[in-house]
Fold this sequence. Notes:
Chain A is α/β, with parallel strands linked by helices.
Amino acid sequence: MGGMGLKVGVYGGSGYAGVELVRLLAGHPEIGALSVASRGYAGLGIGEVHPQLSVDGTYVSPEEIEDLDVAFVAYGHGESAETVRELMRSGTHLVIDLSADFRLPHEELYGEWYGEHPAPELLMEAHYGLPEVFGAPAGRLVANPGCYPTAAILALAPVVRRMEGIRSVTINALSGVSGAGAKPSVKTHFVSVNESAGAYGAPRHRHTPEIETILRRVGEVPDVTFVPHLIPITRGELETIVVDVEGVPEAEEVLGWYAEDYEDWVFVEAREEYPHVAHVANTNRCRLSAAVDSRAGKLLLFSAVDNLLKGASGAAVQNMNLALGYEEDLGLEHLE
Amino acid sequence: MGGMGLKVGVYGGSGYAGVELVRLLAGHPEIGALSVASRGYAGLGIGEVHPQLSVDGTYVSPEEIEDLDVAFVAYGHGESAETVRELMRSGTHLVIDLSADFRLPHEELYGEWYGEHPAPELLMEAHYGLPEVFGAPAGRLVANPGCYPTAAILALAPVVRRMEGIRSVTINALSGVSGAGAKPSVKTHFVSVNESAGAYGAPRHRHTPEIETILRRVGEVPDVTFVPHLIPITRGELETIVVDVEGVPEAEEVLGWYAEDYEDWVFVEAREEYPHVAHVANTNRCRLSAAVDSRAGKLLLFSAVDNLLKGASGAAVQNMNLALGYEEDLGLEHLE
Amino acid sequence: MGGMGLKVGVYGGSGYAGVELVRLLAGHPEIGALSVASRGYAGLGIGEVHPQLSVDGTYVSPEEIEDLDVAFVAYGHGESAETVRELMRSGTHLVIDLSADFRLPHEELYGEWYGEHPAPELLMEAHYGLPEVFGAPAGRLVANPGCYPTAAILALAPVVRRMEGIRSVTINALSGVSGAGAKPSVKTHFVSVNESAGAYGAPRHRHTPEIETILRRVGEVPDVTFVPHLIPITRGELETIVVDVEGVPEAEEVLGWYAEDYEDWVFVEAREEYPHVAHVANTNRCRLSAAVDSRAGKLLLFSAVDNLLKGASGAAVQNMNLALGYEEDLGLEHLE
Amino acid sequence: MGGMGLKVGVYGGSGYAGVELVRLLAGHPEIGALSVASRGYAGLGIGEVHPQLSVDGTYVSPEEIEDLDVAFVAYGHGESAETVRELMRSGTHLVIDLSADFRLPHEELYGEWYGEHPAPELLMEAHYGLPEVFGAPAGRLVANPGCYPTAAILALAPVVRRMEGIRSVTINALSGVSGAGAKPSVKTHFVSVNESAGAYGAPRHRHTPEIETILRRVGEVPDVTFVPHLIPITRGELETIVVDVEGVPEAEEVLGWYAEDYEDWVFVEAREEYPHVAHVANTNRCRLSAAVDSRAGKLLLFSAVDNLLKGASGAAVQNMNLALGYEEDLGLEHLE
């Protein structure tokens, strides 16, 4: 990490999160050299493959990348751990993994939801990279949070931290189609998605245990009901969370908790107005709100993020900034 | 109701529900004469005002309509009751009101949610027009159900009828923009809605008491938490309902209840596959499904309708058919 | 074609045009038996595979279909001709081919744009199924027109028939994504299409020679410039056609030609108002308009169709109706 | 324009172009003080009115703004000139007008298309702010180009400059709905726009004379046929331009002209690949391409911009930068 700027590499630089990472890192003032690997596109110009990016440079194969200060791994779940292990062994100063491979605390839980863990010895070393709740990443390995868990935990942590006796938590989530990945399928065909909407993955979506186990670090929470839906937008997520708890607080009180807990963090903000996806799309923000259904005795929380930014690549760069001691929004100022 | 076919009139024939009614009634085989009233457009060709309709005929003013066999009133809430009263007094054989004015059972509840009732003496006379739950309309006045309550009650009635000890019901609803009405506003501007999504109306949306009071005719239900969201589609609604109940049944059992209760009704069908809006858009269907979150101990119900058809005008024509002794799908065969 | 209704078969019943055909044919009053073949889905319920269809019945393999009165072939270009040949040989009363295989008048032209013709001996036998221009189909083989040519020829034929000295014709077309087919690809991924628009296929889209050669049956036309664009809608096409001609007529005169030529045909209508896609979507209509750019001395024509209905399956059923002597809109009344 | 940074004001800061200006100016490194005026919202927080903006500060009334170095006027056509006149009189160093009021070269032409000019004495003073064609703005008054003319002139100028004998130019344009302004109307209602597309304004859209007269500064052009269409996207414009000219050049030659003329400008780039709206949306780019229809003997040009950035507010900031001697992309780096 010498005077010429950081040497940074991206593995999996042609998926949606990878492309977004490249866009952000290409404009980051502390980066001296950026290598972007893609097995499928090695040798092609990044800007040729993705005409929406005005980035110079050429995709390389993963093997061509060496001597990184910081590595971002944007592979799929299960595919990431192997690369992470090699990077850790080779002494990379900071490894930020965008997959789910290092988000769950132990091997058994991972096995139950994802299958056998490819690098269980690293699980204890990973820091869950949600700085507004857990502070700047410590150590060399950052598990970048899932998009749904980001929105859910930012909304719920201040409540869970303060309230006992939560009886149930129901999370209803809406997601844009970029959340389903870049691979063409019947499910992501324009004609399938447009003028439609539907639940999927429930009642056993893999983000459920991530939400539960991470929240349990700050307080007691029952098992969560999580129902995601696909809606016809490109990017953005909105979660409507219903909390059944003894002694429902006033909405204003909850907004006060948010103000208090997120005071020092630029990307998270609570407002009285319910957040819309358009309030956060193309930004690194999380916008929160709260209301009370006094008839039914329920607390309602609302949380919106851009799944590719605060829900993935924006958070990853924010984590890099904090891990290296920079301002959290360095290179992300236009996404505030 | 002589040999020349029915004399039918539509009041409020230029809003979204009105236009849809006109489309359906213009193709109905038992209708001999159709009058369509619109204050704003009286004197103009219906097909000129709405180029998507290939309907002959001209809008008239409400005063010009006389001697109807069947009247459909598609005015807004509070505006409808006055016209309904006159139609009832003038001896119209059947009056189908698409507003909320006659859906709630008594004046006090109406007052709490909508304001003073303009024609309370008719409340007792109205039949709630959800035939799959309450049978063919009896009497001369049909209160056509709200769009959200249609989807909610069709999903919940078979459960409420059979289960005791329901502790909570949370309804998360997604709606297309036609549900917000034809009047231009910042809220319905394309740029506001497109690439966005947001909750609105919660926690006190006016469809809440309709859902509760109608459901209580078939069984016990606690106060319902109802959170509607606007999403960027033109038509269709999807509800994801979470039921917290002692002794959660198996999903298959619930699907069996649906099959049993809706066996004789062509427009309601349950499937294992979760319904998508596209499965019901431009049809008079309601599609249902059920799942169980066994970890959190919750029953999940899914219900989709087209808000302008099964959620409004299609149901209104179905109600007319049943009230007059026709097949429920007469003139609606292509919407099955 | 006995008293029990027509025996009808669909080959390629799981693509977008095939599904639309099944929907229409399932509601057609003269059809006694409908067989639907799909190689990929043989054995599966049609309504299982396509939940938006409430059609009973099961996909069969093409080999299982026998003794048809009418066959619809909805295969891709080049794949269709073989099946058509067999159907013609086996004595099928009427074969309607939705591919491009029999639309061009001779082998050489087909070869230039599509490759070697698989059944050239049938080219002379095929009737181009645009009845509003060429009358009810004669003979046993109907070449159902392409979607773009349908819109273009309906707009241009009345002009070409009456005007000499046309110097140039430029067709700018916008198409919904269903026009790109059901096969998932990067091009049809929701994220690629949404919030975007782009030209494709120009300057050598395969519908160009179809437009030119068919139009030349009614008058003289220079080579046509045809530029299609993909826009983020599911269905519908809009063409804006600029004609450079000596002695530009008044727009009213052109509207008069349209009225005259299409007087006896229910699905084609010209209006002063420019057609929007929404005026024809989900219908079998073609809507036309005309304007004059008097400064630049150009005639502007506007034409809109639903690519899956008037541009494919609706026209195919209309062709069947006319070939068999029924009213052109039998079973299509709700699509007028 | 002292050491404390520029004093900048925006008039009309709550329309789409105004909001975009505020977003850009709030992040501009040379601006010391930013005042934003809006008659309708004076006194309200900018970020309250537009939750998608994380901008501090409050709307003021126009009268409250004083002593500006740079003023941006984002009023409608005809409403702008009065404010511009006052700003010029009061000695504002630089006035950038985003309306059409100062784009046409003389009073008569303005009168023919817009009505009587409110400040004709300033017409001669205005510099047409398309720097890639006419260089950095000179003088104190910049007429910021229209969105359609920006895309058209950038595509056509290099051709018009080099070719004689152009016989006709036809511009087919697709526009997102933000181009229709923020005022709610039937035309911009989500339900009107979604799943539709239509031509409007042709054959006498007001951008036509702007395109013609500006192009005639670089070469000879016949009267232009310009047909804009509204499509269901929020932002972005795509123009497909057909040029009929003696001796059609090769596409590669035209791409070479683009490369040559725009070599020194960061925001304009030509590629072989046809531009899609998604390649320029949310950027200040213009992307160009060219093709030849050798059968019909026509040159095809393709040009895409974001109507709110390169087509309005991005260009306005770029003009400010150039007029004040900064790099053209200062504060716009993330929009390259």
